[in-house]
Amino acid sequence: MKAHRIADHVYCLHADIETDDRFEGIWPIPEGVSLNTYLVRGTKTALIDLVRDWTNAADQLRRQLDSLGTSFEQIDYIILNHLEPDHTGYLAELRNINPRLEIISTAKGIKLVESFYNITEGVRAVKDGDQLDLGNGVILRFFETPNIHWPETMMTWEETSGTLFSCDAFGSFGKLGDRVFDDQFTPEEHRFYEEESLRYYANIVASFSTFVERGIQKLSGLPIRCVAPSHGIVWRTRPAEIIERYLRYASYSKGPAEKEVCVIWGSMYDNTRLGLEAVLRGIESEGVPYRIHRVPNEDVSYVLADAYRAEGILLAMPTYEYAMFPPMAYVLDIFRRKHIYHKKVVRIGSWGWVGGAQKEYEAAIEPLKWESLASVEWAGIPKEGDIKRLEEAGKLLAQKIKGV
User: Fold this and answer.
1) Residues 224-243: pLDDT tens digits?
2) Cys staple from 135: which of 42, 102, 185, 207, with CB 3.0 to 4.6 Å?
3) Domain 4-252 bears CATH identifier 3.60.15.10
4) Rounded Cα gap, residues 149 and 200, in angstroms
C-alpha cells in the first residue's frame, strides 16, 4: 500500500482495518474501515491524526512513510483533530519513538492527551483561527468544531492545497484498498460507500446533527478543494458532494426524511409475521417503498441507518412476558440514544394469553417526538377482521408519508 498524493506537499496515508472486532465495540464492520492519516510538509513536517495499532495499522503507516523518504522519527508535529482512540491509540508509542514531537490539539483535546496517555510535556493547545507555520508558505489553520462528535473536536485547513482535514466528519465505513480518491471509484462502488456513510452517520454522528450543521456553516467561507476525512474516501474531485450529503443526513434529525418506510419486525411463532404481511400489502397499495429488517437476526447498526433515513417506521413485535419483544426493546433504546426523532410510526403485534407490550412501548417512545398512529394488536393468529385493520393501518401510514 502506498501514500497517495493530494498535492506536492500533502499526502494521504491510510490503514485498512479488516477484523471481526466491532467499531466502538458496538457496530459491525464486515467490509472493514479505513484509518486515514495525512502528512503535510513545509520545512517542517506534520502528521494530521493518527491510528490505533489495530490489525497492524501502525506498520501500514510506517511503510507508507518509508515510501515518502521519511519516518515517524522525522515528524515535527502531530495534529490531533479528535482524541477518540481510533485516531490516537498509537500516540504513546509515537512519543517514545520521537520524544521531540509536539502534540497539538484543542484545550479540551490536550486534557484528553493527559488522561488517555499520561502525556503532559511537548503539548500545545490551539483555538479557532490559530495557525501553525510549517515553512515554505505551508500554513495550517485550526477551527474548533465541538461535538462532531466529541466536545474537543476541531478541523484543520491547509490553504495552498485547499484541503480540509475533517477527522470524523464526512467519513464512512468500508476499507479502501489501493485507492482513496472519489474519482477512482466506480458508480457502483460509490453506491456502496454512500450506504456505508449513512450507516456511519446514523451510528456515530446522528445524535450531534445540530453541531454538524453549525460546523458546516462555520467553514462555509473556505474554498474547499479537497475533503480529507479520517475514515473513508478522500474527496478531491467533488468535495461538495460529501458536504451536501452530510447536510442532508443532519436534516433527517428534524424531519421530514426520505418518503419511505423502515420496517422492523420480530416474531416468535409467525403470528406477528402474518399480521406484518397484511400491513405491507397496505403500504404497497399506496406505492410507498420500504426497507425491511428482522430483529434480532439483523444487527441494529443497519436498522438504525434505515430508520434514520426513512420518514415512516413500522414496528411489528409480539408481546413477550407482559412486555415488548426484548430485541425490539433494545432497538427502541438505541433509537432514543441516537435521537431518531420526528417519524410517522405504526406499531403492530400479536399476544398469546394476554397483552402488555403497548404500555411499555408508549413509555419507550415518549421522548422520540413521533407521530404515532393507532397500534393494532390481536390475540393469537390474525383473524379476517384483524387482517382488514392491519391493511388499513399500512395504507394510512403510507398516506401520511405521502402527505395525502
Assistant:
1) 999 999 999 999 999 999 99
2) 42
3) yes
4) 12
